[in-house]
Write a structure and sequence with these properties.
2 copies of one chain form a homodimer. By secondary structure, chain A is mainly alpha-helical. Chain A contains 6 helices and 2 strands. A two-stranded antiparallel sheet of chain A has the order 1-2. In chain A, a hairpin with an 8-residue loop joins strand 1 and strand 2. In chain A, helix 1 runs antiparallel to helix 4. The first copy, chain A, is globular, with a radius of gyration of 24 Å. Chains A and B meet through helix 1, helix 2, helix 5 and helix 6 of A and helix 1, helix 2, helix 5 and helix 6 of B. Chain A binds a DNA duplex through helix 4.
DNA sequence: CGCCTATTTTTCTGATTGGTTAATTAACCG
DNA sequence: CGGTTAATTAACCAATCAGAAAAATAGGCG
């Protein structure tokens, strides 16, 4: 028996998408895709104060997109891509819709051909 | 020559992800995946007032996720999945990371073997 | 025209967000 | 111990968000 976790999943997607809805945070993820980094490392490219970055990281952490270690006075951040896989899966649900354009184009071409064939049945 | 649209793309992703960061809005998209619907149709399943739904639709529209027609006093909504394809593409950038787990497991096994071999060089 | 239905705009909440500066904690280094 | 570096917390601000209620607009329909 599998109990339903629908609302939990939905809540998690809320958090994930909210975390991704900020270009600073997405840039942080991009940086972390290259490998582990400290808060200072992550802050370097931005014209933002350290506390601002610290907050962004906390949002990403809360969304389960990054995890943090502890080495001396550093708190190295690591990307956890599990949630990104969920985002991908979620979006893929709709693939048939954006792919349908091709189907419709197909139909269009087929219809054109049919009209053409009706005009000149044996061309 | 291709001019850079990096920040524009980033802004668009901000809007897209922000629009998706709400389960009501995602439910609206799910409903629209079944086909066109009016604002009242879309509002029906929710314990929310019509203006609330109207606002949600406006957010989705602003993010380019839905487009609306005009038939009499109805404003039928249609899903435009182009942005969802962009979301999918964005997430796919990170696929190698969530796939890498297998690689890392590989490495782990290889390391174990190496340690084992060092202990018993000719086993 | 006046009514009914569909939808939006306005106005008002309380909560959240993204940012700041200043102060604080944590851990190392001499 | 005192100083330095890494990072967080606290307190604050302006802007945005999600919702409600009430009023306004838009377009048939009798």
């Amino acid at each position: 028996m599998t109990i339903t976790t629908a609302t939990l999943d939905e809540d998690r997607l809320d958090d994930t998408f909210a975390a991704l809805a900020n270009s600073t945070r997405r840039a942080i993820l991009a940086r972390l895709a290259q490998g582990e980094a400290t808060v200072n490392d992550l802050a370097a490219p931005f014209a933002l104060t350290l506390p601002a970055i610290s907050k962004h990281i906390k949002v990403l952490e809360h969304a389960g997109l990054v995890t943090r270690g502890r080495r001396a006075q550093f708190r190295p951040c690591t990307l956890d891509a599990t949630r990104l896989a969920e985002v991908s899966d979620w979006a893929e649900q709709y693939r048939h819709i954006w792919d349908d354009r091709f189907d419709r184009l197909d139909t269009y071409v087929r219809d054109l051909r049919q009209i053409h064939d009706q005009k000149e049945p044996h061309s």
